[in-house]
């Protein structure tokens, strides 16, 4: 039988069972438990109310721009017209291209974690949706990855824009920062994240939209939060 590590056994001493705690207290505990050598991600997991009054499921897919950034580093590619490549490079994109970038994608050379596309180039990239879609890389106007203002789009994704999407059971998760962030910055990110999700509640949903919330770190244990 596999034994838990000494580090994990120490963390378990800080566990709190069957009790909701305030977000600030949870953040302090999660940071205390982040004892690994790397800069652990601080993550929030939600269970949302999917059932609509007339039946059926709600699919929530949106983006949240965290006020203090996410701490996550994306390798960003921009697909645009040739006369806009210089603008995209100056904005901070890691990979910039036009037809040459499409050729690389068609050949399976996908060396990036996010793809921004101008509206004009969407018609050219559309046929590659079967490759990009499953990887979560297909540009989407609702997610800020189809844009005419490349400077703003690149800045948003580089600084703090996180994508939110629930699974079929109503679960969704997102990072709200790193253990190196101060408690104050993590709390501000958390509150902004929760309020952003609440605003996505459709009129057809009755009662609380967020049914439960948990906070944890990459290598830590989770804490149940009160979100009302």
Layout: helices, strands, pairs:
Blueprint: H1 6-12, H2 23-33, E1 41-48, E2 61-65, E3 76-79, H3 85-91, E4 95-97, H4 99-106, E5 114-117, H5 122-125, H6 129-132, H7 150-159, E6 161-165, E7 171-178, H8 183-198, E8 210-217, E9 223-225
Concise overview:
29% of the residues lie in helices and 21% in strands.
Key traits:
single chain, 228 residues, alpha/beta, Ribulose 1,5 Bisphosphate Carboxylase/Oxygenase, Rossmann fold, three-stranded parallel β-sheet, 9 strands, 29% helix
Structure report:
By secondary structure, this protein is α/β, with parallel strands linked by helices. Helices cover 29% and strands 21% of the residues. The longest helix has 16 residues, at 183-198. It has helices at residues 6-12, 23-33, 85-91, 99-106, 122-125, 129-132, 150-159, 183-198; strands at 41-48, 61-65, 76-79, 95-97, 114-117, 161-165, 171-178, 210-217, 223-225. It folds into two domains: 18-70 and 161-225, 2-Layer Sandwich (Ribulose 1,5 Bisphosphate Carboxylase/Oxygenase); 76-159, Rossmann fold (3-Layer(aba) Sandwich). The strands form three sheets. A four-stranded antiparallel beta sheet has the order 7-1-8-9, with helices on one face. The protein has a three-stranded parallel beta sheet with strand order 4-3-5. Strands 2-6 form a two-stranded antiparallel ribbon. It is globular, with a radius of gyration of 20 Å.
Can you give the mean pLDDT?
A: 89
* Quaternary organisation of the protein chains: single chain
What would you give as the CATH superfamily of the largest domain?
Ribosomal protein L1/L10, rRNA-binding domain
What's the arrangement of strands in the largest beta sheet?
A: 7-1-8-9
- By CATH, the architecture of the largest domain is named 2-Layer Sandwich
Alpha plus pi helix count: 8
Uncertain residue segments: none
Radius of gyration: 20 Å
**First-last Cα distance:** 41 Å
């Amino acid at each position: 039988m596999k034994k838990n590590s000494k580090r994990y056994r120490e963390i378990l001493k800080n566990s709190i069972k069957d009790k909701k705690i305030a977000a600030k207290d949870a953040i302090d505990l999660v940071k205390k438990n982040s004892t690994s050598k790397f800069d652990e991600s601080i993550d929030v997991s939600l269970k949302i109310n999917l059932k609509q009054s007339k039946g059926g499921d709600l699919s929530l897919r949106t983006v949240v721009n965290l006020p203090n950034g996410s701490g996550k580093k994306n390798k960003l590619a921009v697909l645009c017209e040739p006369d806009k490549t210089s603008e995209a490079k100056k904005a901070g994109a890691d990979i910039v291209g036009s037809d040459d970038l499409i050729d690389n994608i068609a050949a399976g050379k996908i060396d990036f974690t996010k793809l921004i596309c101008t509206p004009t180039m969407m018609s050219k990239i559309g046929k590659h949706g079967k490759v990009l879609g499953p990887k979560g890389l297909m540009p989407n106007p609702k997610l800020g990855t189809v844009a005419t203002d490349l400077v703003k789009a690149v800045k948003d994704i580089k600084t703090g824009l996180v994508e939110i999407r629930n699974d079929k059971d109503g679960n969704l998760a997102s990072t709200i920062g790193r253990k190196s962030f101060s408690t104050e910055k993590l709390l501000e990110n958390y509150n902004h994240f929760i309020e952003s999700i609440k605003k996505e509640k459709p009129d057809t949903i009755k009662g609380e939209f967020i049914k439960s919330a948990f906070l944890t770190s990459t290598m830590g244990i989770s804490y149940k939060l009160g979100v009302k």
